[in-house]
Amino acid sequence: MTTIIRAVVADITTLNLDCIVNAANTSLLGGGGVDGAIHRAAGPDLLHECRLLGGCKVGDAKITKGYRLPAKYIIHTVGPVWQGGQANEFELLASCYQRSFELAIAKDVKSIAFPSISTGIYGYPIEHASKVAVATIQSLLLDQPLIDEVVFCCFSHRDLEVYNDIL
Length: 167
Ligand code: ADP
Known about the structure:
Largest sheet: 6 strands, mixed
Mean pLDDT: 97
Structural class: alpha/beta
CATH topology: Leucine Aminopeptidase, subunit E, domain 1
Shape: globular
Number of domains: 1
Strand content: 15-25%
Bound molecules: adenosine-5'-diphosphate
CATH superfamily: Leucine Aminopeptidase, subunit E, domain 1
Number of strands: 6
Strand order of the largest sheet: 1-6-5-2-4-3
Low-confidence stretches: none
CATH architecture: 3-Layer(aba) Sandwich
CATH class: Alpha Beta
């Protein structure tokens, strides 16, 4: 079966999919942006589970339950802070999508939503980051077409246009 890949504008916490991805920070103990929204919506039990994970490296990912979210799982990944493009940002961002994909496959996730990792507080230009996101996921799906639906969850109509231009 071919995977449906699409971009939408939504609050990612509302999406009724198997799994959503969080653009977290290395502490995994909550923060601003989408991370704050996910912790608020999932409730305090999420923080309790996150405390047991021992943080997360940039470019890596860890998985928790979804608690009060419609999603069954949350994958917490830590994107790179944009430093102009010469600090391995490309590889680290691609690694976020790859590690998240691998964890999702390991849990037999069939539908997953990604926020636009690193393009908020971390400053990665969305025109570049969206290409990394889409190309990485498309190439992983070629080898492992095991997910039915991948959603790129944008938080503005401008971001949606950028993703739709690529898709
Ligand atoms: P980072 O620190 O990785 O840049 P941010 O949370 O600041 O993470 O931003 C990542 C992206 O998530 C940005 O495009 C931001 O607009 C978007 N975002 C913020 N809140 C939400 C939300 N509730 N649902 C989906 N996307 C969101």
